[in-house]
Design goal:
The complex is a heterodimer of chains A (395) and B (78). Chain A has 395 residues and is of the alpha+beta class. Chain A folds into two domains: 230 residues, PPM-type phosphatase domain (Phosphatase 2c, domain 1), CATH 3.60.40.10; 159 residues, no CATH class. Chain A contains ten helices and 18 strands. In chain A, strands 2-3-4-5-9-8 form a six-stranded antiparallel β-sheet. In chain A, strand 12, helix 6 and strand 13 form a beta-alpha-beta unit. In chain A, helix 1 packs antiparallel against helix 2 and helix 8 packs across helix 9. Chain A starts with 6 loop residues before the first strand and ends with a strand. Chain B has one domain. Helix content of chain B is 36%, strand content 13%. In chain B, the strands form two sheets. A two-stranded parallel sheet of chain B has the order 1-2. Chain B has a two-stranded antiparallel ribbon with strand order 3-4. In chain B, strand 3 and strand 4 form a beta hairpin. Classes of the chains: A alpha+beta (395), B alpha+beta (78). Chains A and B meet through helix 7 of A and strand 1, helix 1 and strand 2 of B.
């Protein structure tokens, strides 16, 4: 089995209830590199606003961490439910959850408690998966029922987890008095796949959230959350920056870049010149300035993007730090690199370690950091914050 | 050819990329402005200070819009 070949693309979009600053649903995900597992938890706290957010965050983080430790699910659920603080007005403590635990081979377990049923789409069509019911008795004698699913994902399967803000959107309106509904949502998603079978997790989540918001005439009556998981072949991106320490390795670098299966980005004037020389290609330098304040991008055949070096990757690192989702706004080479990164699952960073003597000039701004450190920072952010598979290589 | 490498860009090359717009209207058709990922002068000792610009075969160091205009005018007269 070539287990490593598959990638779980996870994206989640949320909208808060109209008038609320904070979303009462929480989405958390964790990728464990060593075990090749992806854990996703979606929780909807009682009510809306801060109180709901606290409940949901507590639930989701406990759910993720207990699952991570492979704790039995009944114990996890019991602990979550007895830990949640009791609502002052309603005298109950409550938050729903859906936990998905996926291994890179496709083995999947999903535990669902009171959330709208999650959906599986295979070849663009909805598929039903059998579940078993788990009944849990809480310490105070209350009985809770959960659904437990266990199955193996196939290539290009998509899992959709929504909060009731999606399925109940539009409730009370003339066209859908009982809300959008699960059946309509299923049809809506099927329609999306008919139009675009390759739809990414991000685009699908965005489409569903938008549709739900429109159902509520753009004033959501509840927090809307949509999480999409796409099990697919990894998309690769090579980010090459810096010339090799030793000039004799220029050819090796050029060969590795040329043979790389996937998209290619070069950051660095000298680096792109080395590659152009070794691969016998022309660089067409753009002189169009934009509002990013970065040196302009150039074009080279066989490459998706050619940019300046340290300033651009410095900005990429900065933007990654500030970015809260995968939707990249703005113009300029750094934003373009970010967009390419977000579209990819596996990012190879090829870092040349040659020190640019000219950059030791004391008249240059202090922001000019050492490339290695910036690239390490990018690698860390991509791995921890954006769940990307990152390989970093120094030459 | 204007250097768009890190060093030149920071030391004033950013402004030079708009050089074409500073050219007098009469000269715009006779001058082609292009860019280079890095002219490589910053790493050669004794070649001067950035930003660098190459006008035909002449390397202009510490280039400004003003100094470039002078060099371009001189070159056009030749």
């Amino acid at each position: 089995m070539n287990r490593k070949r598959y990638h779980v693309d996870v994206d989640c979009l949320q909208l808060s209830k109209h008038g609320c600053e904070v979303c009462g649903d929480t989405f958390l995900s964790r990728k464990i590199k060593a075990e090749e597992r992806t854990i996703v938890a979606v929780s909807d706290g009682l009510g809306s606003g801060i109180k709901a957010n606290v409940l949901a965050t507590l639930t989701a983080s406990m759910a993720v961490n207990f699952t991570l430790e492979k704790q039995p699910i009944d114990r996890t659920a019991k602990i979550i439910m007895s830990t949640l603080p009791v609502d002052k007005q309603r005298q109950i403590s409550y938050a729903t959850f859906t936990i998905a635990d996926i291994e890179s081979g496709g083995e999947t377990r999903i535990i669902e408690f009171d959330n709208p049923p999650w959906m599986l789409f295979r070849d663009g069509k909805p598929v039903t998966i059998d579940h078993e019911k788990l009944t849990i008795e809480l310490n105070d004698g209350r009985i809770r029922e959960m659904h437990h699913y266990q199955f193996t994902l196939q290539l290009n399967d998509r899992i959709i987890i929504v909060s009731d803000g999606v399925t109940q959107s539009g409730i009370g309106s003339a066209t859908m008095p009982f809300g959008f509904g699960e059946e309509a949502l299923r049809e809506f998603v099927t329609e999306q796949f008919t139009n675009n079978p390759e739809m990414s997790a991000h685009d699908l989540a965005q489409t569903i959230v938008k549709k739900s918001s429109i159902n509520d005439i753009n004033k959501p009556k509840d927090d809307i959350t949509c999480t999409v998981l796409h099990f697919r072949k990894p998309r690769r991106l090579l980010l090459c920056s810096g010339p090799p320490y030793d000039e004799s390795k220029d050819m090796m670098l050029a060969q590795m870049v040329q043979e790389f299966p996937g998209k290619k980005v070069v950051c660095g004037g000298t680096t792109s010149k080395v590659l152009a020389r070794e691969l016998n290609k022309e660089i067409d330098v753009g002189l169009a300035l934009d509002d990013s304040g970065l040196p302009p991008a150039s074009k080279m055949e066989g490459f998706d993007l050619v940019t300046e070096g340290i300033l651009t990757i410095g900005r990429v690192a900065e933007m990654l730090e500030q970015q809260q989702n995968t939707h990249i706004k703005g113009n300029g080479p750094a934003a373009d690199i970010l967009r390419l990164i977000m579209e990819s699952d596996e990012i190879h960073l090829m870092v040349g370690t040659k020190i640019n003597v000219a950059h030791q000039d004391p008249s240059l701004p202090v922001e000019l950091e050492i490339r290695r450190n910036v690239m390490r920072k990018i690698a860390r952010l991509l791995e921890e914050k954006f769940l990307k598979e990152v390989k970093i290589q120094f030459i | 050819m204007i250097c768009a490498g890190t060093h030149c860009y920071l030391m004033g090359g950013a402004e030079l990329q708009l050089f074409h717009e500073y050219l007098p209207a009469g000269l715009r058709d006779s001058v082609i402005v292009t860019g280079s990922p890095c002219l490589g002068n910053c790493n050669c000792e004794g070649s001067g200070k950035p930003p660098f610009v190459m006008v035909n075969d002449i390397i202009v160091e510490q280039a400004t819009i003003q100094s470039l205009l002078e060099v371009v005018n001189a070159e056009l007269k030749n």
